[in-house]
Amino acid sequence: MDVPSEFRNPGKRRPKKGGTKPQLYEDTSMQPPPSEYGAHHGQGINMEGYNPSGYGGPPGAGQFPGAQYLNDPMANMAMQYGQSLAGQGTDFVHKNLEKYVSTSRVKYYFAVDTTYVMKKLGMLCFPFTHSDWSIKFNQDQPVAPRDDINAPDLYIPSMAFVTYILIAGVVLGTYNKFTPEQLGIQTSSALVWLILELLILNMSLYIMNLKTDLKYLDIVAYCGYKFVGMIVCLLAGMVFQSTGYYSTLLWFSITIAFFLVQTLRVKILPHSEDSNYSRGSKRSLYLILSISLLQPVMMWWLTGYIMFTK
Amino acid sequence: MSGEFGGNDGFYSSSDSYEDEPPLLEELGINFDHITQKTLAVLNPFKAAEHDMMQDTDLAGPLVFCLAFGGSLMLCGKLQFGYIYGIGVVGCMAMYFLLNMMSLTGVSVGCVVSVLGYCLLPMVILSSSAVLLSLKGMIGIVLTVLAVVWCSFSSSKLFVSALSMENQQPLVAYPCGLVYGVFALLTVF
Hints:
By secondary structure, chain A is mainly α.
């Protein structure tokens, strides 16, 4: 428990450390390292115009005690370097991230409003009364979920994932097995299983060579919808023990399978009918069925071990 | 003052600037009026918040509240400052990402940290009450849920007023509730 806090604190105190121990900074910065000489050398370089207001001469006796840190040119240089580094870092991250995950597309998936979320949750719990599963807008443009109830979104899956971690923590707490490290452990193992599932689905879509409109983020969204069911299962298991857990698991397995079959059928099947091979539609049907049946298995896998760790 | 103006040593030349300097609190950026205003806005979740209140992002208040939270947890026997810091950083990053995706205008990290920090105040109250009564009983559960709802309601109110996302307030309140729920988990268990 002490290790993480000690690890994090040096980052917070960096500007002050640059003032009291110049040696630490001189190794990483670009300035030449002599230690005694470093202060004067730093003053000389500082005069060239980094931060003239900070260099107010030797600190007056009446000022607050910390002033000599801020007036020390080494600290100034350290702060300037740190700020420029942070700026470069964010630019670098933005440029590279833009290549993999385009922010404007991701924004579409979060353009939700309250009515959409309520209706979608209702649909996840009881999809049997919903009749029209197609998306009405043009498929080339990503459609904001606000406009169409059938469009996938990423808000519900991400919220459901975090809630699942929290509820797992609560369940562990009722068994008196909760420590804050458990949160990290649960998060990482659930993430790993989710990523594995996404990889398998993407590989199978690629291998089966189906023409679909499914974007990568759509698949992430569809895999994330099962966390809603998992949350209810865990809650029911906490209140009603085994019977509650298994019955809600059964119910939500049926609903998520039905939901996915209906949704994917609209997205995958119409395109495979363009080809002349009749096997094309069979392949897509198998794929849809296997995706839909994989979800209950994952639901059971990710909640069972929490319920029954006694 | 004028006698010291032609200062020969370096020592006296700075005492002239000593009198012209702005007061210490202004230099540090701590503005007590704003702090009390924001704290009252958090404590009274039913009063509407003004749009400009969150524009100056100050981190002094949130820092005090986080330290108070850690201190009251310490009184319960849990030395968890590191976890509070870690969860705070992760929660703030997640809220920053989510709010930038969901809102039309962007939001800065300072604003997110400031709002989330100020709305930690009900959690501080909860954890100080944990010193006196155990939170695992029925009253404790009710108090915890109440505190989380209060925190998330005020933080979503502040975010919505700062970012003008009127019809999405429940959607902003839920992730805030999740962040404060993790803090509540630390407090209770």
